[in-house]
Amino acid sequence: MQSPNSNLRAFNLAVTTLLKNPSQFLPHLTIPTITHLPEILGPALIQTPAPSPSPSDKPSATPTPTPTIRALVLDKDNTLCHPKTTSFPAEILVKLRYLRTSPTSPFNRDNSILIVSNRAGSHPRYDAEVRALDDELRELQIPVFMLPEGSAKKPFCGTEVLEWFRERGVVDRADEIAVVGDRLGTDVLMAAAMGSWSVWCRDGVTEGGREMNLLEKMEGWVEKYLRESRGLRAPPPRGWTGTGTGTGTGGL
């Protein structure tokens, strides 16, 4: 496993992405916190402002295709728990319970939700966090991803995460997965690299009350600039055709 040092490679990837393909830095869906995550994600992921039609435009007879999301990758720090803790706010536990137990939720199947953290599960130093999370979530059966020996942390472990779901028969393709987290430079970039959809929890754990470090503030400024000033939006995952036959093979 990787040593628990700063993820310099991730920073370099973020800079390279912003220079060469900045739209990949943007999430497909932005929500304040995970408590706002729609149960049926597909329609929300492709809700983007449509250009104003010209008078000569004819209405399209083809309905807009929507992705089918069968699995969730959830970040821990600042998405499910406050940073460097394993305590879940009550409202987030309620949300997780609903996603896992609602008869209409696509995530009530075993192994359909996986916590992927750059702390818990990424290095033996954080094994106590894994045990605490396992105890907290045992009833809901939401596991923590254990980074394989020699693998890199987010945003570089997308191939391993996709294989985890495939081995358990949850998904066939990467575009059936949504990555949910508070960081553009790790969670969103991992989703883009693996060919999945991304959901950005803008406020972290507590709506409107997030305290950000400088890097997190910079990500927010860049996201607003790309979206508002340059008019960019996240492209569909690589290989997604909107017909249910996308390749979505991932690979980093």
Automatic annotation (TrEMBL):
It comes from the Eukaryota. InterPro entries: HAD-like_sf (IPR036412), HAD_sf (IPR023214), PGP_Pase (IPR027706). GO terms for molecular function: phosphatidylglycerophosphatase activity. Residues 44-67, 232-252 are annotated as: Disordered. Residues 50-66 have a biased composition (Pro residues). Residues 241-252 have a biased composition (Gly residues). It holds the Pfam family PGP_phosphatase. This is HAD-superfamily phosphatase. It comes from Aspergillus ellipticus CBS 707.79. The lineage of its organism: Eukaryota, Fungi, Dikarya, Ascomycota, Pezizomycotina.
